[in-house]
Structure formats: structure tokens, C-alpha cells
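For this section, I looked closely at a protein sequence along with its fold in C-alpha cell form, which I now present.
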Amino acid sequence: MAINQTTGLTGPPSTPIISVKPLMLPAPWRGEDLHVRISAPVTGANLPIVLFAHGFGSNLDGYAPLVDHWASHGFVVAQATHLDSKRFNVAADDPRKPHMWRYRVQDMKRILDELDTLVASVPGLAGRVDHSRIVAAGHSFGGQTAGILVGLRVTDPVTGVTEDLSDSRVMATIQLATAGEGGANLSPLALEVAPWLRDQDFSHITAPGLVVAGDKDELPLSTTGPSWTSEPYTLSRGNKSLLTVYGGQHSLGGIPGYDAAETTDENPDRVALVQQVTLAYLRHITGTNDTDWETARTVLAGDSHALGRLESK
């Protein structure tokens, strides 16, 4: 185990990775084929899976700081390009627009259904993947997608119906800079562009999870302030952890990608913190190794660390 001199956290050595894209899955119900990227280490067996959902407007090429880090340390990472991506440029009056949140969940389930096909398309990966250990992760809008897969209830803004869209194949989540409670604290902008945030119910989530929130993340979708992105932790049941990133805005230092235009708080140290804590959590929750997670909990306890705080319930 190596110690990062900036964060003080430990981590395993990295290995080379392979990424294959775009892998195409037919998806006639969404009006576009589903484009998928698979990244994995070139060595190792019984590899757990991370199902990653990008933020609004992004695509399967985003989030290299996280995806490459996880893949190089023993995880198979699957990414899709969701319909809200700028690559599709769905018009404002497109009838699919109010259902973007639901299409995202369907995308994730489609990937799970076709894992064997996707894995077989990556040279040398077949037979090395553990389908019983799957974690859903996502940033911003993608965090909601991950949450729905473990029981977050969203009221459909068109029908008014609330459904359980969880998937038993997903064992845990990592939600990064993700929306909290709806209701009276939503801004008029949120009600206009993301009406699916109006009624979110976290009480049915029983799976373990890690929430990552920046303490300077002032989103225009809520009047609550930066604590809004901590609510997926505070409003959920136990067996959850919260990493608060000091000085972190919505990009948490730059996780959407190197030189990503939307990063307003570029800071390699913050990115390193998020990389190491999320990897430690992945290794812990999949039963791979607990050492780095316990180190993180010790080093980041209380308010003594310059970069952030880690707490659990």
C-alpha cells in the first residue's frame, strides 16, 4: 500500500487498463441506440463492476479522473451516453424531454441485462468479471440515477405516479454532488428544467452508500445551499457515509474530466481526495479490502484534515 503525501490516505498500486467504445446496444424505445464504454484492468480476476451515470449533458467519454482510477485499481466500469447528453441535442419540445430521468434508469438496466455481451466485446475480459458485485455511481443528475437503482422514489412529473424502479443486482451506490430533497426548497429553475426533482423520497433506500458533497456547491436548483447535496446522506437510513469536500463546488475539483469547461474549482488535491476515498469505499463495500477504507475513516475523522471530512452512520 502506498501513502499519498497530499491526502495522507493509502491505496493499492495501479495497473494498465483497456477501454472499448462505443459498444452499441439497440434501444428502440429511446429513439437512439445505447452507446456504452467499458473500461477494465488488463489483469485480475473476479473483478467487481461499477455502473457509472454521467451528469446532465455529458457523455461516455467524461469523468476520466474517476473512471480510469477505478479501472486501474481492479474495477470494470460501464458508462453510457444518456439522452440528455449534448451529443444528442434533444429539442426542448421533444416528447422524451420530461422522461429523461426514467430513460437513464432504463439505460442502466439495459447495460445490466447485456453485461455478458458487453464484456465479451472487450479483448481479454471474458471470464474475469464478478456479476454478483455491482455498485452504481453517478455525478449530479447521475447520482439520482444511481439512487433510483437502490430505492430512491421519484414521482413522475407527467403521470404523478411514484414507482419502485430499484434493481436487486445493485448492491450499493456512490452519489457525487447529487440533488437532495425537493418540495418547497426547489427553485423555479428546477421546476422548469428538472421537474423530476419535485418529490424525491430517500426513505426506501436500504442499500449502503457513499455520498460526496462539496461545501461550496451552490446550485441554482435549490434554495437550501451547499447542504442540499448532503441530503442523500442525511435523509437516508443508516449504513451510509458522507465525504464533505472542503472548498468543493459542483465539479469537486475537476472530476468531470481534465480541462472540463464546467469545472470552476479546479484543484488536483480535491480530485485526489475523491479518487482515493471512492476507491477505498468500492474496495470496502465489495469485500475486496477494508484497510484503505479504515485508514480514510481515521485520517478524515473530525475537522482536522485540510481537504475534507468523512463521517458514517
